[in-house]
Amino acid sequence: MSQLSASPLLRMTPYQPSTLFPIKAEFAALMLRGGLVAGAIALVSGTGSYTVMIEMLSVTSRAGFAIAFVGLHDLGVVALTQSGWDLTQVVLVDDGPEMSQAIAVLLAAFDVVVFDITVIDRHWHRLVARARERKSALVVIDQDCRRSPRQLAPDVTLIVEEFGWAQPTAECPFGAPAFHVAVQEHGFRTDTPTVLAR
């Protein structure tokens, strides 16, 4: 299956039918299409969702895709660096009164936009339509397992059911994240316990 070619910062990747954003292999193996579909809405839910999202999209970042984070106060640049992100392709945006408008602007310039579930408001349907038109992916973080708004309707949901850290090794002195994640996609569910390699 063909993949999107990497895009420079502030420039959208041309869309091709049935294309995917590459993600880390452990997650790709759980998804029906083997990656994050351009224009899709993904929900990452549960304790450890920040780490799971960072690890999943680390391959996306290293492939040269531009990724924006909006209003994620607990996100650390150190964590991105440790996971091998290309920080030249990353922008962190503080939250504010017009979050939906900020995300809409970012969708014109970034391949993936990541934000907290609390951002979702009455303008959500417009954001989804814009993301699908631009072929950008929206990744929604629900770290506290709030009840998802009815209008969210994600294309794929990653549920972090267990989360911890593996024992440190010489190659990974701080330990690697270990988790049990379930993926729900188009009525199908796949899950596996995983220790991520770094």
UniProtKB/TrEMBL annotation:
Membrane-spanning ranges: 27-51, 63-82, 102-120
Protein's UniProt keywords contain Transmembrane helix: yes
Domain of life: Bacteria
Keyword list, A-Z: Membrane, Transmembrane, Transmembrane helix
Name the record gives this protein: Uncharacterized protein
